[in-house]
Amino acid sequence: MNTIRRERYLESYEERSEIFRTALLRATLAFGTGFILLPLMIVAIYSFSEVAYGIFPPPGFSTKWYAHLFAQATFRGAFFRSVGIGISATTIALLVGFPTSLALARTRLAAGNFLRAFILSPIVIPKIVLGVGWFIFFARISLIGGWIPLILAHTVIVLPFVVAILTANLSGLDPTIEEAAQDLGAGFVKVLWYVILPQIKSGVIISALLAFIVSFDQVESSIFLVRGENNTLPIEMFLYMEKWQDPTIAALSTLLIGFAAVITCATVAISRGIDLSNLLPTLGGKKSTR
Amino acid sequence: MLATSNQEVEVQLVEVTKRFGDVTAVESVSFTVHKGEFFSLLGPSGCGKTTTLRLIGGFEFPDTGEVYLNGRPMGRIPPNRRETNMVFQRLALFPHYSVFENVAFGLRMKRVPEAEIRRRVTTVLEMVQMSGFETRRITELSGGQQQRVALARALVNNPRVLLLDEPLSSLDLKLRLQMQEELKRLQRDLGTTFIYVTHDQGEALAMSDRIGIMNNGRLLQVGSPMEIYEHPSTPFVASFIGDTNLIQGSVDFVDEEVTAITASGLHLLVKRAGWETPGDQVYVCIRPERILMNSDRETGNVLHGKIQERLFKGHFVQYRIHVGPFTLQTTIPYGGSNRIFGMGEEVTISWDPHQAVLLQADEEGRNFDGYSPSRRDERAERTASTR
Q1: Full domain range(s) for residue B30
Q2: Nearest CA to CA, how far is B95 from chain A (Å)?
Q3: CB A180 to CB B93 under 8 A?
Q4: Is residue B348 predicted with pLDDT exceeding 80?
Q5: Percent of chain B surpassing pLDDT 90
Q6: Could you give the ipTM of this predicted complex?
Q7: B317 touches B340 (CB < 8 A)
Q8: Is the pTM of this model over 0.90?
Q9: With an 8 Å Cβ cutoff, is A278 touching chain B?
Q10: Are A180 and B88 an interchain contact pair (Cβ–Cβ within 8 Å)?
Q11: Do A185 and B157 touch (CB under 8 A)?
Q12: Spatial CA neighbour of A157 closest among A96, A230, A238, A203
């Protein structure tokens, strides 16, 4: 009799501690999410403020700051410039990063580790140091101003993200699958196109999105390379805020948060394996779907 | 005997050597495979058989020597420009394509017209009994089905030579036996030259026209399964193909037809090999089923022993018999007039000297790795008897 009671007690103890653990986990999750989201929500609410000065909660709501934002040609120009630089830097980083990753994933040489560390180093070097370095470098070769220095600088900064993701993807591939393709008549280029790329396509897409976001977000590394007429969006925002404190920047930030949310959702969808196979090559164009 | 109607040479290796760093994977290997032949490379893991296959397929290139396909030296021609196709041990199917696209891959690479691709893929899938699976994903197939797709993917290209690297090793026994028969049937119907790598002697014996036995990177013997079974060239080959008794001894004297051997006090006669001279260290190789027990037809070698172990195997009974310092294995068919001997029973065993083969022992000091002489481990036995 005693043992049964004891077992029941233990069972209920197990149950209670299970409930407690779940509750603790949920509380931690809620706290973490709140910590990240609340400031963003305050920005979003503030962007609909009726007044120009910083007061929270706002005395009334309006969309006039959004109207004001769209009236600013400088922001529009800077936005498209930032997008253009981001896309260019991402494209170059993919074109350079894919062969580099393939080499790093396949080499057994000691030099491989050194090269990997070198390529990943921009992640740990302070961006402001890189910015100063590039400023001196591009000034020496008289290339300050215009898009080229910005694109090159951003490429170096986003390359580590591309290489880190792609080497991880490529190392996971079974090399005999490539041998099989070669055995069936595929040369090097066809092996790349029909066998390697389709297998790592989610890695390619995720690394491209990440590279774009990192490029879009650059301030310190870019600030020495711009010359007023070619400011990127974050720098334009920084300059605006030095002059004005009205909610225009909050409105812009809210839009950018939405933009980031879309990209994040896309990344999650891709890593969950939603088929975006139309983006990358398939054989013969014929889909064999059931 | 061979399935080859003509003796046209399809694949030839001449003195091929391949090293990986300090390791010599393949050492001076030469052999010839005829058109339409089912040729197996058999040996324990690490013997160099897979490397040899990869050298033929173009995945490795020889350090010295040459591989000829259809009379042409292959040099450093890559796999995509050789008329060979390979079925890989790990199958290596394309995980991102359907069954149809996997099989069609080779034809697409050769820019075969779409209609012909459809026809040929359909035909080959029928041949491997995978019709109706065209749209399935590879991950939705069982091991045996994946095996068939891998085979179809190679066969659809009508290769001159099909290279198979232990393709059945991941299947369970029943499926493996079934696939063996199917492979053999396919090979016969298509007339394609098959080079088959395996470590399973049963598989090699059942399917092959000829077998090449490899060990430590060397090719030890090439011959038909029966030739190798009847006339193994080394103790290793004798013990690797089928069960065997290897009795170590030295040559006493050589007569016209037979040679007399002394083996730890036993005197044995064996068919004369030709190379032996008195004093040579040798092995006498006698297959278990060639040894008679309490027979009224005792001839040649007659020995007395005691049954140590009896294993009933269904259609035959296997005995281990202590004879002097040796443990000999015999197998007697079950049923009919054959009686079953009891444990510990004293028996007379005998065999015809012509049923045994004389083999050269390795140089002094070489270990016995890879084959097991029939000598009893006396130390182990002493410990057992003191208990």
Answers
A1: 9-230
A2: 8
A3: yes
A4: yes
A5: 61
A6: 0.80
A7: yes
A8: no
A9: no
A10: yes
A11: yes
A12: A96
